[in-house]
């Protein structure tokens, strides 16, 4: 799996050269700018609502008064760490929902960009087909909805685990790996759809190549550490990178 993660990560560097060489910037910048605007508004909304949620939860449970009565610095430290971990988990959970909304809305563009990337690799023309695009969009919505459901189940389980002292400190890493896997899954599935694989076959194949999905999703998230530029480039770069990483395995999917 580690080898496939490295392949998934290296594919982003290949994607940058590929996009620059074939002048695909119009497919990168326009959706990227729209994504960035939605991302900024989403973060602003989350930061406001999460603060109110934590204050309400502390007030309802009486944790703050209880800790003040005990006057224990160690328990206070555990409370602060738990507060931080819970915020991180909720942040990932919010970003997960936001991400799947973007995947559903942007599925026609992502499907077309993935198909265009492979057409350039093979030296073929890419005639526009509204029927095929509609079919790819329906497939993208189905996969995004399915992944959102399963990821929500795992995220809620991780959210409960984060309440366990010390052990719960590892939950953000686990939650991030789950996030990376399911985002990369959606990106890789565009190639599986193009090879006319059923959703069940796609789930089986990508499940056996988890490293590619995790590597793709990992760099997607890391690009968000670069304000604005990373946010603009991340969505479309992940599509091209996923297509490039899957192409050498094309014969395996037949």
Features:
254 residues, mainly alpha
**Sheet having the most strands:** none
Strand-residue fraction? under 5%
- Helicity range: over 70%
SSE sequence, one letter per element: HHHHHHHHHH
Number of strands: 0
What does this structure look like?
There is one protein chain. It is built from 10 helices and no strands. The chain is an all-alpha fold and 254 residues long. The chain is 83% helix and 0% strand. It has one domain (2-249). Helix 1 crosses helix 10. The mean pLDDT is 79. The chain has helices at residues 2-21, 25-61, 63-70, 73-105, 107-122, 130-161, 171-194, 199-207, 210-223, 229-246.
List the SSEs and their pairings.
Layout: H1 2-21, H2 25-61, H3 63-70, H4 73-105, H5 107-122, H6 130-161, H7 171-194, H8 199-207, H9 210-223, H10 229-246
Summarize the structure.
This protein has 254 residues and is mostly helical.
């Amino acid at each position: 799996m580690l080898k496939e993660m490295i392949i998934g990560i290296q594919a982003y560097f290949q994607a940058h050269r590929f996009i620059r060489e074939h002048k695909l910037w119009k497919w990168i910048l326009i959706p990227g700018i729209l994504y960035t605007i939605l991302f900024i508004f989403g973060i602003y909304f989350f930061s406001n609502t999460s603060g109110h949620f934590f204050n309400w939860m502390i007030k309802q449970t009486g944790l703050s008064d209880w800790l003040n009565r005990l006057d224990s610095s160690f328990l206070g430290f555990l409370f602060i760490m738990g507060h931080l971990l819970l915020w991180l988990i909720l942040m990932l959970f919010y970003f997960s929902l936001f991400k799947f909304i973007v995947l559903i809305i942007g599925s026609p563009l992502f499907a077309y960009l993935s198909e265009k990337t492979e057409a350039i690799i093979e030296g073929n023309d890419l005639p526009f087909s509204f029927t095929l695009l509609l079919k790819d969009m329906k497939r993208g919505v189905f996969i995004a909805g399915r992944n959102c459901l399963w990821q929500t189940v795992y995220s809620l389980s991780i959210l409960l685990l984060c309440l366990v002292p010390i052990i719960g400190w590892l939950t953000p890493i686990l939650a991030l790996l789950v996030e990376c896997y399911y985002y990369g899954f959606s990106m890789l599935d565009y190639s599986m759809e193009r090879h006319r694989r059923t959703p069940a076959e796609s789930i089986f194949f990508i499940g056996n190549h988890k490293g590619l999905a995790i590597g793709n999703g990992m760099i997607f998230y890391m690009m968000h550490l670069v304000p604005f530029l990373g946010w603009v480039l991340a969505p479309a770069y992940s599509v091209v990178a996923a297509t490039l990483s899957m192409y050498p395995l094309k014969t395996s999917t037949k």
